Amino acid sequence: MAECRLDRDILEAFSLGALAPDEALRVEAHLRSGCPACQRRIHDILRSVVELKVPPAESATPATPATSATSATSATSADSARDAALEQTLAGLDQRLLLQSLERTVAPSLAGELLAQPPGEREGLLRTQSRFCSLAVCEVLIEQSFTVGFEEPERAVELAELALLLADHLDGEYYGRPVVQDLRARSWAHLGNARRIGSDLPGAEQAMRCAEALLDQGSADPLEEARVLDFRVSLLSDQGWFEEAAGLLNSVIAIYEDVRDNHRKGRALISQGLILSYAGRPEEAVVCLSSGLMAIDWAVEPRLALMARHNLAWSLNDCGRSDEAQRLLERFREEYHGFHDFWTELRLSWLESRIALRLGREEEAEKGLREVRARFLEKDLFYDAAMVVLDLAALYLSQGKSADVRRLAEEMLPTILTQKVHRQAAAALLAFRQAAKMSITTPRLLREIGSYLQRARKNPALRFGPGASG
After folding, report:
1. Contact (Cβ atoms closer than 8 angstroms) between residue 123 and residue 167
2. In terms of Cα–Cα distance, which of 294, 305, 315, 299 is closest to 344?
3. Using CA atoms, how far apart are residues 178 and 18, in angstroms rounded to an integer?
4. By three-state DSSP, how is residue 358 classified?
């Protein structure tokens, strides 16, 4: 039997058709799962709506045998009217659910048909063929934009722009204007996310501001607010504003606590832990990542569970708890092999090498870091390669090998600097090369450069200099 977790406000909004489509689906699924408490509540809510429409019969004179009989007949008629009205209301609710179900069933094929048309002809179809203009088709386009984002950011932008165009053609009278505004806000937010992934940070900022403005005109659905906040957090992180991003996630976490969605709360905690790690606050990152891992459903998102444990081991190592990091890694090492992508494989190798470095296994650490650096360079991932160079420099510095630090800078940095590294990042790497040449490199300088590169890899507006890394 399903656990009861729907409050009366949510059920009232559902009964009136005022919830966002995905939230309505969640409520519908919960009701159909057999929760007796919520089924009783929704029945009482619908009956109260009917009571307002069909008031009880009133008697204005003292009762007599004749009037008593009349009153009884009147009460029976009122009861029958209320029962009929309740049945009509329930039938209307079932009809709404059926229409939503039908929309969702045909939405993928309609979205495919729309995408098969030349881009210049799609708006004309939306103006002339209303069958494309449904919430469900718009949501399919939004989901597809999110799904392809990291592998095909340009395609993700195209899909989000089409979702936004479709949202502008939705019937506000039919769906409810607040619901349509929510979907427009969500479309803008996904467009902002796609632009962010494609490194168009100014375009992402403009899209997010549109999403936030539309959200104020929407249904006040907390889940819609959480979605937009989530994307704002990602943008802040890419802009290098880690502290602001981590702070904003507290609002996201609070929303998911209020709606009792532990999995999404856990995802937000994991994101917060990762961002705190980027900000150089590994102790706080450990707390957030541990809490997030306890909240999420590992079976629903196995990659998320793996990524969270990877970042937990990384943060444990960064705050000097390398033995714990090693033990944790041994418990889940095999799970990396369930994902056959370049990044997952290389993350494991990099983590192993950094733990070995902290535990004093210097030969193992050097060999691993050199291999990871070479693989990053093969894939033209120059910022990541630069971060590994800094790890190697820290190793040589701890061994007192200034000549090796100098040789590393002279051999590797020209390769990185000739690639697509923005001017301020190049200035940071040149500062390292100059310090290595003069044999004045320090662990503090390496940390400062690494922190700056982490913040500024996607944001050339962040300047490098004393204190610039925060």
Report:
1. no
2. 305
3. 8
4. helix
CA distance from start to end of the chain: 51
Question: CB-based burial of residue 28 (10 Å sphere; 0-12 exposed, 13-18 middle, 19+ buried)?
Answer: middle
Cβ neighbours around 367 below 10 Å, total: 13
Rounded Cα gap, residues 148 and 129, in angstroms: 27
Whether the CB-CB separation of 162 and 114 falls below 8 Å is answered with yes
User: In the numeric block, which tokens belong to residue 91?
Assistant: 């039938």
Task: Report H helices in 54-134.
Answer: 65-115, 119-128
SS3 80: helix
CB of 270 within 8 A of CB of 292?
A: yes
CA distance 96 to 25: 12
Token couple for 147: 């799904």
Are 202 and 165 contacting, i.e. CB atoms less than 8 angstroms apart? no
Residue whose token pair is 């090998």: 401
What is the phi-psi region of residue 299: left when phi exceeds 0, alpha when psi lies from -120 to 50, beta otherwise?
alpha
Q: Looking at residue 152, what DSSP letter applies?
A: -
Task: Give the 3-state secondary structure of 386-422.
Answer: HHHHHHHHHHHHHCCCHHHHHHHHHHHHHHHHCCCCC
The H-or-E segment that residue 5 falls in is none
Q: What angle is formed at CA 378 by the lines to CA 372 and CA 384, rounded to 5 degrees?
A: 50
Amino acid in the structure at residue 431: A
Cut 0.90: pTM above it: no
List per-residue pLDDT tens for the chain, 470 residues long: 344 556 777 777 776 666 665 566 667 656 654 555 666 676 666 556 444 444 444 444 455 555 555 555 555 665 565 555 555 555 555 555 556 677 788 889 999 999 999 988 988 888 888 888 889 999 999 999 998 988 899 999 999 999 999 999 998 888 888 989 999 999 999 999 999 999 899 999 999 999 999 998 888 889 999 999 999 999 999 999 999 999 999 999 999 999 999 999 999 999 999 999 999 999 999 999 999 999 999 999 999 999 999 999 999 999 999 999 999 999 999 999 988 888 888 999 999 999 999 999 999 999 999 999 999 989 888 889 999 999 999 999 999 999 999 999 988 777 777 777 788 888 898 999 999 999 999 999 999 999 999 998 888 888 887 544 44
Written as six digits, the tokens of 309 are 């444990």
